[in-house]
What we know:
By secondary structure, the chain is α/β, with parallel strands linked by helices. It contains 7 helices and 14 strands. The protein has a single domain (about 65-250), classed as Alpha-Beta Horseshoe (Leucine-rich repeat, LRR (right-handed beta-alpha superhelix)). Strand 12 (about 195-200), helix 7 (about 200-210) and strand 13 (about 215-220) form a beta-alpha-beta unit. Helix 5 packs parallel to helix 6. The longest helix is centred in the middle third of the chain and has 13 residues, at about 100-115.
Amino acid sequence: xxxxxxxxxxxxxxxxxxxxxxxxxxxxxxxxxxxxxxxxxxxxxxxxxxxxxxxxxxxxxxxxxxxxxxxxxxxxxxxxxxxxxxxxxxxxxxxxxxxxxxxxxxxxxxxxxxxxxxxxxxxxxxxxxxxxxxxxxxxxxxxxxxxxxxxxxxxxxxxxxxxxxxxxxxxxxxxxxxxxxxxxxxxxxxxxxxxxxxxxxxxxxxxxxxxxxxxxxxxxxxxxxxxxxxxxxxxxxxxxxxxxxxxxxxx
Length: 251
């Protein structure tokens, strides 16, 4: 509708400028961390379903499409691809809960890998054997936060064991590992400032502290040792930057 040459949007009985409507959309969008709530995850689709003009506004706003949750429910691959395309060149927040079907997994990972240069906050909740699917592209990435959760404890590691390894090695500053030891993760460690590890071997915890000289915050929970005895370091580990250390359920 037009009034005095100014375009207005209808919201119930209210008239709202498109610029204001766009600002409202942005406030409704999920923040730059994966939402826990289904209604938040679908915010762009819900906004676009109100009316044709809202659909046009939502589809033209890349900020609404930068966060996506891909779970057990089989969302069409075409929708996932279009969702990420609409985010334009903005950083992406992605949560993926793994599928057992290799064909489906391959299709999703190909779409996500296409946009790996924009991965910023990535949460992979997958079997350890699925990690190699998410290798990204050779483009330099901006990965800031990486969460890797394994469904079950991996097999004993050897050089041929699958691991999370991208073609362009990421340099995250925030890392969370659950049931996945350091040998299964190929990243640049010396950029980490925050790390949380759950249900991994105590030896990997010592290696993490040594590999991450910039580490400031470390949380360790349910740490164990597979060996009958863990060889204590011969020298004291001095870490000048670490100022927050949390130990929970140590065995």
